[in-house]
Amino acid sequence: xxxxxPIPTAQPWAAPTAHGPVDAALDLPGSKSMTARALILxxxxxxxxxxxxxxxxxxxxxMADGLRALGCAVSTMDDQRWVVRPGPLHGPAKxxxxxxxxxxxxxPVVAGLADGATVFDGxxxxxxxxxxxxxxxLRDLGVPVEAHGxxxxxxxxxxxxxxxxxxxxxxxxxxxxxxxxLLLAAPRFDNxxxxxxxxxPVPSAPHLRMTAEMLRAAGAGVxxxxxxxxxxxxxxxxxxxxxxxxxxxxxxxxLAAALVTGGVVRLPGxxxxxxxxxxxxxxxxxxxxxxxxxxxxxxxxxxxxxVTGIDVDLSGLSELTPMVAALAVLADRPSQLRGIxxxxxxxxxxxxxxxxxxxxxxxGVDATDDGLVIRPRRLRASTVHTYDDHRMAHAAAIIGxxxxxxxxxxxxxxxxxxxQFATLWSGMVNSxxxxx
Length: 436
Ligand SMILES: O=C(O)C1=C[C@@H](OP(=O)(O)O)[C@@H](O)[C@H](O)C1
Ligand SMILES: C=C(OP(=O)(O)O)C(=O)O
Known about the structure:
By secondary structure, the protein is of the alpha/beta class. It contains twelve helices and 23 strands. It has two domains: about 210 residues, UDP-n-acetylglucosamine1-carboxyvinyl-transferase, Chain (Alpha-beta prism), CATH 3.65.10; about 200 residues, Alpha-beta prism (UDP-n-acetylglucosamine1-carboxyvinyl-transferase, Chain). The radius of gyration is 21 Å and the shape is globular. Shikimate-3-phosphate binds next to helix 1, helix 3 and helix 5.
């Protein structure tokens, strides 16, 4: 396979310090997880679909490219409305997954439905992200997969144009995306799918809820009423008009800015019924000392002046760990973040990366088996390594609000999910400074 697309060039960045409360209304980009699911479901449906307000970022663009490589027409000409025209899925194809968990987990199952061989590879850091249980499940379902070592990239999936489906067992404790990947394609399996999880708890329950909800919206029959068991009926998926919500996880650092500075951040345009875990995030913000209110004008987060340290199981909201860890070093008491051992397999080993970088900033940090213990201490200026991880960059930016002299080795890694992060962040901080 040709070498994977280059990783965005590193861009060192000085995080702006806030000298008072932020007060901002932000128009944030679409949800990565919803855009990824809408693309897959549209590509597997019977007719044309549109995706309004999609996320324009590296992860979703790689997903669109991957579907194109498999024979699906995806027009991204109009930034506000992508058009997906499904076509017969076929190889040979080469797919660059970048560092996107959604691309490296969702597309191999789609490739199993294609006729021919598809080769997958990605950034060097993607080659160490877990994939083995999904590879094993695909093989159990009769799809030939060649993988590196224990089931890592690079991968070759040789589809026969169809998958029998039926019962399969998987250990999805390393990533909920293994289950979402199989569920999203399952209506196209001849016999549908009954998937059982066996192993330590599956993380990211809200993402599995989103998968089931979007499958149902596309016309699939899904039963997710029994813990650790999901059933999808075989059937035709309908093309439809998807409308993507703003990304709640992408919003998280901005919400954190309200907490750190005792300010206000508003996110207009939030739907009354959200596919994302707004209630869980509201409860988390409340425990951290702020308030999140959902009203007709959208979401408003107000900081209470002090960040409260917490003891919290973040397994459902694990992608928010870097943001919560950043708040924890600025909090009034120690925090314990639990239930997140699997984030060692995220964009980087986030447990080790956070422990190392927060310690360098002066915090007291212990990595535990399933998370982090964080003791706030006097912090100092430091250059934070971002490890190509967008959310490590977010964490450093949050701390930089309160600690002068925080520099990031690279802010360009935020292009994974929000290429405009540095501009939006500086705009939020500078507009508050200008008003003072
Ligand atoms: O399905 C999805 O869109 C996602 C599921 C979660 O993955 P894990 O279960 O691997 O944490 C989450 O962390 C990731 O950012 C997006
Ligand atoms: C874990 C994350 O991403 P991915 O979809 O690449 O797993 C994340 O965005 O925090």
